[in-house]
Amino acid sequence: MDVILNAITEFSAFIWGYPMMILLLGGGLFLTIRLGFFQILFFPHALKHTIGKVFKKEKGDGTISPFQAFASALASTAGATNIVGVPVAIAFGGPGAIFWMWVVSIIGMSTKFSEIVLGIKYREEDKNGVYVGGPMYYIRKGLGWKFASSLFAFGLMIEIIPSVMVQTNSISTLSESSFGMPTWLTGVILIILITAVVLGGIQRIGSVAEKIVPFMVLTYIAGALGVMIINIEEFPNVMSLIFIHAFEPISAAGGFAGAGFAAAVRWGLARGLYSNEAGMGTASIAHSAAHTPHPCRQGLWGIFSVFIDTIVLCTVTAFTVLLSGAWQDVKPSNAADMVSDAFSGLMGPTWGPIFVSSLLLIFVISTIGVLVFYGEKQAEYLFGIPFSRVMRFVYILSIFVGAIGGLQFVWELVDITLALFVIPNVIAILFLSKEVKELTDDYKYNFLKQAQTKDKGISS
């Protein structure tokens, strides 16, 4: 068994090393150029028509509001990857990794925008009157690749099982160490909470997400700003470290082991790609249910979600760790504890870790609810609604199994199953990039020009 696990681990490390980074980064760069740097030139427009109109009801077909779709998609990415993953990138890539994380997030905006645009264009209405879409639909309907669409759906459906296990185990072990709660009890509580959410479908998930996600994000940012303010005198030095060591090696200091240029690039790109899930196609599944007058209007939320997830959340985490000195105080092997160490300087050694643990608990609960929904949609696509209910039971069961630490060998398959659906998704987006460009040009002409003309008329 150990031989098999080692082989799986080595293969996963290879796939998610340079091959996957080249695919995701290269694909995002191609889309950025083909769309005329849309996510950069029209970023103010994206802000105006997303967060600037968060309470406005959009016209067009759909099942949930644009913001509910955004909150649901963000719930699956915001959390452990932002709070725990960033310190790991700094521990092994140094402060310069943050610069490359910013670079890849800007490029990734075009990928997520394209996914959502295609998801809206090729979505369908299921037997229950709910709009469904995502990579499995645009791969099959847009390109006629039935096997690739099934491969995506099957890979994501299976990948949800170990993902749920990993998420619930992180909660149960955290609750046990922070609050003394038995892992089995955490598993039972999670089953009750998450079942209550997922039984309501995308409407309830969206309703819960639009209330929980903003609270989580704003609370975490407020706490992180507190840490940054009390260490503000270190800000110039930290910015210097980020930009200088994005291109130059950095030597060991304190508990930090040092890092070269290649490590900074590798860990920065990997963290940026993994944190916002641009290229994985999952966000388009949630966004495909949104009311929207044009595919690109909903695609703007994809640009904004990458901004919030990576540019904002990952960056404030990086600053708390760097400004507080936690990146030098905590050994790389314990990198996940860096944020708790940073918050201890603001809230004390007791309340700092409790604050971080409590937020992670809420983050992960919302993440699991959306993951189960994603898995159900894949099962429905492959085998129909009845089978999706079977998979719902499997996912609910995996919550408890993961909480008590069972079937850990399954966790090793996470990265491989991820590759099963990421690869066909990115390739499909590249082949369909002409359609994304046509829709983007149409949006510029029919929506942007009209809006500009209307604004000029009001000002005059």
Task: Provide a quick synopsis of the model.
Helix content is 78%, strand content 1%. It is mainly alpha-helical. It has one domain: Amino acid/polyamine transporter I (Up-down Bundle), CATH 1.20.1740.
Query: How are the strands of the biggest sheet laid out side by side?
Result: 1-2
The CATH architecture can be given as Up-down Bundle
What is the structural class? mainly alpha
Helix content: over 70%
Count the beta strands: 2
CATH level 1 class label: Mainly Alpha
| Count, helices | 22
The profile of the biggest β sheet is: 2 strands, antiparallel
* Oligomerization: single chain
Instruction: Please indicate the percent range of residues in DSSP E strands (runs of 2 or more).
Output: under 5%
Helix-strand sequence? HHHHHHHHEEHHHHHHHHHHHHHH
> Mean pLDDT, as a whole number?
84
CATH topology assignment: Amino acid/polyamine transporter I
Shape designation? globular
Descriptive account of the structure:
The chain is mainly α and 460 residues long. The protein has a single domain (2-53, 64-459), classed as Amino acid/polyamine transporter I (Up-down Bundle). The protein contains 22 helices and two strands. It has helices at 2-15, 18-34, 38-41, 43-48, 66-75, 80-83, 85-93, 96-121, 135-143, 146-179, 183-198, 201-230, 235-244, 261-276, 282-287, 295-324, 326-329, 338-383, 385-403, 408-411, 414-431, 433-459; strands at residues 124-125, 131-132. A two-stranded antiparallel sheet has the order 1-2. Strand 1 and strand 2 form a beta hairpin. The chain is globular.
